[in-house]
């Protein structure tokens, strides 16, 4: 009798060592972590943890640098509907346009797409589940998770569930001189 219950496929995520810059610049550092991110490129903005602690508020540091999650329903952008752009709270890179924001009812700001090239995704197996983590492609700051195929009536059927504390809204009015 074939038993299914304990059969689980484990994938060994091997390190891509073909990029010589990555090999010399990143492999020997203590901050290196093995993961199956979709690129091995270093982040353009790289700061020490001390520098991030000085720059960010304790809650921003907990979420952006330690992959924390703000309490559902607590974020300032959860029900916010201003017109403009949401930048990374750590490095000021534009991440999401307000046009892509929708009310998912999940307790966090939700977007159906990011600005092209703005985010980087990882497979996240923490917490006993497999999710897709999103980080800022410029500084590596943790943003939240992306979920697909949930049936939301949006152009992509994706829900980018983002912590408000990882974002900084810049309204169109604010950008006028
Ligand atoms: Zn950033």
TrEMBL record:
InterPro entries (UniProt xref): Met_Sox_Rdtase_MsrB (IPR028427), Met_Sox_Rdtase_MsrB_dom (IPR002579), Mss4-like_sf (IPR011057)
Record GO terms (molecular function): metal ion binding; peptide-methionine (R)-S-oxide reductase activity
Cofactor(s) of this protein: Zn(2+)
Top-level division of the source organism's lineage: Eukaryota
EC number: 1.8.4.12
Tagged with keyword Transferase: no
GO annotation, biological process: protein repair; response to oxidative stress
Record's catalysed reaction(s): L-methionyl-[protein] + [thioredoxin]-disulfide + H2O = L-methionyl-(R)-S-oxide-[protein] + [thioredoxin]-dithiol
Enzyme class: oxidoreductase
Domain MsrB: 49-172
Cofactor details (free text): Binds 1 zinc ion per subunit.
One Pfam entry name: SelR
Family annotation (PROSITE patterns): MSRB
Keywords assigned by UniProt, alphabetized: Metal-binding, Oxidoreductase, Zinc
Signal peptide range in chain numbering: none
Family of the protein in this entry: Belongs to the MsrB Met sulfoxide reductase family.
UniProt cross-references to PANTHER family, sorted A to Z: PEPTIDE METHIONINE SULFOXIDE REDUCTASE 2
Name recorded for this polypeptide: Peptide-methionine (R)-S-oxide reductase
């Amino acid at each position: 009798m074939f038993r299914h219950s304990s059969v689980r496929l484990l994938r060994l995520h091997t390190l891509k060592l073909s990029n010589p810059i990555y090999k010399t610049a990143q492999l020997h550092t203590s901050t290196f972590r093995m993961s199956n991110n979709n690129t091995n490129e270093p982040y353009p903005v790289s700061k020490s943890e001390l520098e991030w602690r000085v720059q960010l508020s304790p809650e921003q540091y907990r979420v952006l640098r330690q992959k924390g999650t703000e309490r559902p329903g607590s974020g300032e952008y959860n029900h916010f509907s201003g017109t403009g752009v949401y930048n990374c709270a750590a490095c000021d890179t534009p991440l999401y346009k307000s046009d892509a924001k929708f009310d998912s009812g999940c307790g966090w700001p939700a977007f159906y797409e990011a600005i092209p090239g703005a985010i980087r995704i990882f497979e996240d197996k923490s917490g006993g589940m497999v999710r897709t983590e999103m980080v800022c492609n410029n500084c590596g700051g943790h943003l939240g998770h992306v979920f697909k195929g949930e049936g939301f009536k949006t152009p992509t059927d994706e829900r980018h569930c983002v912590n408000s504390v990882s974002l900084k809204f810049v309204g169109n009015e604010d950008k006028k001189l």
